[in-house]
Amino acid sequence: MTDEAPRLRAILDTTVPNQARIANYFLGGKDNFAADREAAEQILAVAPEIRVMARESQAFHARTVRYMVEQGVTQFLNIGAGIPSENNTHQIARSLAPEARVVYVSNDPVVLSHSRALLATDAKTGVVEGDIMHPAELMADAGLRRVIDVSRPVGIVVLSSLQFIPDEDDPYKRVAELRDLLAAGSHLMIVHAVFDSRPEVAPPIVNVYRRVFGRIEDASRRRAEVMGFFDGFEMVEPGLVYIRAWRPDNPLNVHNPDKAWLVGGVGRKPAP
């Protein structure tokens, strides 16, 4: 779109921290500003292991996408996509299935601008505006349907975005609505921070993100609460676990999985 850059400049306020740019900073990226780095450093002061956790999340992402391709899934929705990285969903999927089709979904103008410029480079890759809180509108989006055949199984990738949505917004209901719109054989992958092993870091981290989002609600969860997002799905072994322990490439290298306090899992929608 020719008006993308002026529109982005009108929306972009570099003095306000942004979730996607904070995540980019954790990964060592350069698409962030001073306000993002300040907020990120406040979080890292409480939990410096978050840099490692960000990389662990990327590795989990790769393992789960490869798993879904091996199960015959060749079309994916990355919902709540972040700023493009070195190993994006379509690159992972196409390493095994060159025909794989991927749509990236975000409601963040920064992410949308970067993704349209860097990712939407062929007919098998799309970028659409939307989020997991409006599943019916998302699945009906014309841009999505140009790339994805919703009558066939889809792999849903949700990297961390649910962990910022408080219960007051009823994200469980929205994920269930999305599930009901998917074809049998579709898969749902979720990554979510939990505080079972580090309860003491929850309040200061929540306070930083409260300032980022301008909300007072607490969206922090424990593993048992995250499990509710998979209602109606058949869990793939080993279930919802700390991500280091989910089908690691080398099981001998898995030590203290709870030190990366992100849980993740994959569920499959069964046939009716």
UniProtKB/TrEMBL annotation:
GO MF: methyltransferase activity
Protein origin, superkingdom: Bacteria
Keyword field contains tRNA-binding: no
Known EC number: 2.1.1.-
InterPro entries xrefs: SAM-dependent_MTases_sf (IPR029063), SAM_dep_MeTrfase_SAV2177_type (IPR006764)
Keywords, alphabetical: Methyltransferase, Transferase
Keyword field contains tRNA processing: no
GO biological process, one term: methylation
Name of the protein in question: SAM-dependent methyltransferase
Species of the source: Sphaerisporangium rhizosphaerae
Upper taxonomic lineage: Bacteria, Bacillati, Actinomycetota, Actinomycetes, Streptosporangiales
